[in-house]
Amino acid sequence: MVKARIWTLAKQPVGIPRKEDFSCIEKEVSECKNGDVIVEAEYLSVDPYMCFMAKKVPFGTPMIGTQVSRVIESKNPDLPVGSYVVAQAGWCTHARLPAKSFQIDNWFKRSEILIPLEPLPRSLGLGVIGMPGNTAYFGLLEVCKPKAGETVLVNAAAGAVGSTVVQIAKLKGCKVIAFAGSDEKVAWLKELGADHAYNYKTTSVTDCLSEAAPEKINCYFDNVGGKFTADVLPHMADYGRVAVCGSISNYTNDDHSDPYCDPVVKAKKLHIEGLNVNRWSDWTQGLEQMKEWVLEGKVKYRETVYEGFEKMPEAFIGLFSGDNIGKAVVKA
Amino acid sequence: MVKARIWTLAKQPVGIPRKEDFSCIEKEVSECKNGDVIVEAEYLSVDPYMCFMAKKVPFGTPMIGTQVSRVIESKNPDLPVGSYVVAQAGWCTHARLPAKSFQIDNWFKRSEILIPLEPLPRSLGLGVIGMPGNTAYFGLLEVCKPKAGETVLVNAAAGAVGSTVVQIAKLKGCKVIAFAGSDEKVAWLKELGADHAYNYKTTSVTDCLSEAAPEKINCYFDNVGGKFTADVLPHMADYGRVAVCGSISNYTNDDHSDPYCDPVVKAKKLHIEGLNVNRWSDWTQGLEQMKEWVLEGKVKYRETVYEGFEKMPEAFIGLFSGDNIGKAVVKA
User: Fold this and answer.
1) In this structure, are residues B111 and B97 in contact, taking their beta carbons and an 8 Å threshold?
2) Is B321 part of any domain?
3) Are residues A64 and A161 in the same domain?
4) Strands A37-45, A94-97: pairing kind
5) Are B195 and B176 found together in one domain?
6) Are A52 and B225 an interchain contact pair (Cβ–Cβ within 8 Å)?
7) Which of A206, A268, B125, B280 has the most CB atoms lying inside 10 A of its own CB?
8) Same domain membership, residue A239 and residue A197
9) Which residues constitute the domain of residue A197?
10) Considering the domain boundaries, does residue B142 fall inside one?
C-alpha cells in the first residue's frame, strides 16, 4: 500500500494565505485496478489561481493543483511504469489516476501525458512549457493580438506567465513595457529584452507610463488588476486590447472592490477579455511552440524551486509577497 | 444681425449637475460669408455624455451638443434656406456653420444634413433615428453580437438608447431582460416586448437575475456601470459580451471608483468592449435601418419634450434623476 501525504485547507484563507491555513494529512492511496495508474509527484506547481479557488471551497478540502509525476504502478498499457504525466492530483505526494482522468473535459480535473522535454528539465511541464507558457502564448497572441510596432504592457512580468509574455511580444516585434516588484526582477526583464522595465514598488505607474508610452499602449496583459489596472487604462490607445489574465491584487482582497474605470473603457473603445487558458483546444500545439522557442534560445525561463513537499504552503504564500522569480515549483 | 442665446458652464459640475452650474448669455452670430449658413435651433438634444464632458472643460465654456436646426440664411448652395441639419452647434438658439463643419473628421464637431424623415417628426433625428438609435443599432449588433435564442440584458432601458436596444434584441430573436427606474417605465418596457422588466429602485438586481436568467446572460448592454455592473457580471455566461455604452452612475460620481469585478471577467472569459458610436463609418446606413423599422412599426419610441430653450439645464439635469422616458429633447 502506498501512503500519500496531502495538504488540505485547515481554514479558508482571509486576505493573503498563511501557513496556519494549511494542514498536512496522511492517507492510503486506493488500490490500482483496471486502467488505473499510481503516480508519485516529482515537481508540484503553486499558482496564484489556487488562492481564488481556496477561498471558494470548504475547509478540509485537499488543495487542488498540478504536478509532474512518475508512474510507479500501472494497470494501464498507455502509461507504463516510469512514464511521466502532468497530473491534476492536487497537493499530494502520491495519487491514483483512473484512465478516465486523461479523457474528461473538465480542465481542472484532466491529467495529461507529459510531452517529451529532454534535454530540458521536466519541471518546465509546469512552467514555460506548461500551463503558464500556454497562458502567455494564447493569451497574448489570441486575446491581445499584438501587431509588430505596437506597444505591449505586462505586469507581474518576472513571473512564470509575465516573463514569457515579455519575450513573445518581443519576438512579434513589439515595444514592451514591463513592471515587477524588485530591482533584481527589473534587471532580469531588461535582459529578456523589455524596452522599459520598472519596479512598481518604488515608482508611480502613471509617471512611468507617461514617460515610456507617450504613444499609448495597444496591448495590456494584466496579471494584477485593481488599482494597477485603474492607473493603466487612461494610458491605453483607442481600440486597445486588455487580456485579463490574472488579478493577483484581487485574489487576496476579499471585497473585490478594486476598479475597472468604465468611462475609460467606453471612451477608448477598449476591448477587455477574460482569459482562461483552458479555452484553447490546440493545447499541445502551444506547448510544442514554447518548447521550440526554449530550445532555440528565443525564450528564456527561470524557476524558483523549493525543496521538499513540506514546503508547499511556503512556496504558495511566497507568490503573494513576490518571493519567486519565474515559475515557482516544489520538488517533492 | 442674428442674436443667439447660449448656455455656458458657470461652474464645473460636482456630482449631479445643478441649475446654478449653467448661465445663459446673449451673443451676436458672426456674419454669413462664403460657404456658411446661419441656423436656428428647432430641437436641442440633452444626453448623459454631456455631463462627462462638462466635468472636463473650464467654466465659461459653451455647452456642447447636437440640435436639429433650420437654415435661415445661406451662402452655401448645398444648404438652401429652409433645409434642415443636425448641427453640432452646442446649447444655442442660433449659430453660424462654415461649409467645413460638414466635412471634418472630429465627430464632436461635425454637422450633417438631416436625412428625410417625413412623415416622422424631425426631433427623431436626435433620438431613435439619430445618435441614440445608431448607438443601440451598432452597439448591440456589432459589439454584443447577439444570436437568436440568447439572453440580452439592458439597463437604463427606458431611455433613448436602452428602449431601442430592447426592441432590436427582440427583432433578433433574443430573450430580453430590462431594468429601469420607475413602474411606469417598466410597464412600457413590457409593451415593447421585454421578457422581464424590473424597477431597479425597488428590487435587487441579483435576485431579479437569479430568477429571470438561470441560463445566464450572453449579452449585457451597459448604460449604467458601477455597482449595477458589479452585480451583473457574476450572472454572465461564459464568453458573454458586455458593451460598455454608458456609465451614468460614474458620470456623476467624481471618484470613478465603482468596480468592474475583474476575477469574474477572467473566470468567465468575458469580452468587454467600450462603445463610442462615432467609430462606425456607415452611419447613414444605421439611420436608414432605424427609420425603416420605425415606419414599419417594428421599433417604437417615446420622447420627453421640454418646451423652450430656457429649459435646457432642467432637461439635462432630469437625465440624472430619471425624469425622462425615451429621448429627452428641448423644443426651442
Assistant:
1) yes
2) yes
3) no
4) antiparallel
5) yes
6) no
7) B125
8) yes
9) 131-278
10) yes
Percentage with pLDDT > 90 across chain A: 55
CA B292 distance to own-chain centroid: 20
Give the per-residue pLDDT at A326: 81
More confident residue, B225 or A29: A29
List, in order, residues 6 or more apart from A131 with CB less than 8 Å away.
A45, A47, A66, A277
Tell which of A228, A266, A268, A277 to mutate to test the B interface (max B CBs under 10 Å): A266
Burial class (CB in 10 A: 0-12, 13-18, 19+), A35: middle
pLDDT at A161 exceeding the cut of 70? yes
B273 & B315 share domain: no
- For helices B131-138 and B283-295, the axis angle rounded to 10 degrees is 100
Segment A145-156 shows an average pLDDT of 97
Is there a domain that residue A296 lies in?
no
Amino acid B281: pLDDT: 73
Å between A241 CA and nearest CA of chain B: 9
For residues B68 and A330, which has the higher predicted lDDT (pLDDT)?
A: B68
CATH number at B136 reads: 3.40.50.720
Picking from B256, B263, B273, the nearest residue to A271 by CB comes out as: B273
**Among candidate residues B161, B251, B72, B264, the one with its CA nearest the CA of residue A257:** B264
Residue ranges of the alpha helices (H) in chain A? 49-54, 131-138, 160-171, 183-191, 205-212, 226-232, 248-251, 262-267, 283-295, 312-318
Q: Examine the domain organization and report whether A35 and A55 are in the same domain.
A: yes
| pLDDT at residue A149 greater than cutoff 50 | yes
Apex A55 CA angle, A49 and A60, nearest 5: 110
Domains contained in chain A, number: 2
Residues A47, B94: Cα–Cα separation, whole Å: 64
**Helix A131-138 vs helix A160-171: crossing angle, to nearest 10:** 40
ipTM above 0.85, yes or no: no
A229 contacts in chain B (CB < 8 Å):
262
Amino acid letter, A238: D
Task: Give the domain CATH number at A27.
Answer: 3.90.180.10
A73 interfacial to chain B (CB closer than 8 Å): no
Q: What is the pLDDT of residue B256?
A: 44
Contacting B residues, span 162-191, partner chain A, CB-CB under 8 Å: none
User: Please, which pLDDT band fits residue A93 given cuts at 50, 70 and 90?
Assistant: very high
pLDDT tens digits, residue range A35-64?
Answer: 999 999 999 999 888 887 788 788 889 999
Cβ <8 Å between A262 and B275:
no
Same domain, yes or no, for B15 and B43?
yes
A52 inside domain: yes
Q: Which three cell numbers stand for residue A204?
A: 508611480
Amino acid at residue number A13: P
Beta-strand (E) ranges in chain B? 3-9, 22-28, 37-45, 67-74, 84-87, 94-97, 112-113, 151-154, 175-180, 196-199, 217-222, 236-244, 271-274, 303-307, 327-331
CA atoms A42, A43, A49, A51: torsion sign: positive
Q: Other CB atoms closer than 10 Å to residue A183's CB: what's the count?
A: 12
Q: Which of residues 47-66 of B touch A (CB under 8 A)?
A: 52
Q: Collect the ranges in chain B with pLDDT lower than 50.
A: 255-259, 261-262
A258 & A173 share domain: yes
Tell me, yes or no, whether B15 and B121 share the same domain. yes
Question: Looking at the DSSP assignment, which residues form a beta bridge with residue A331?
Answer: A43, A307
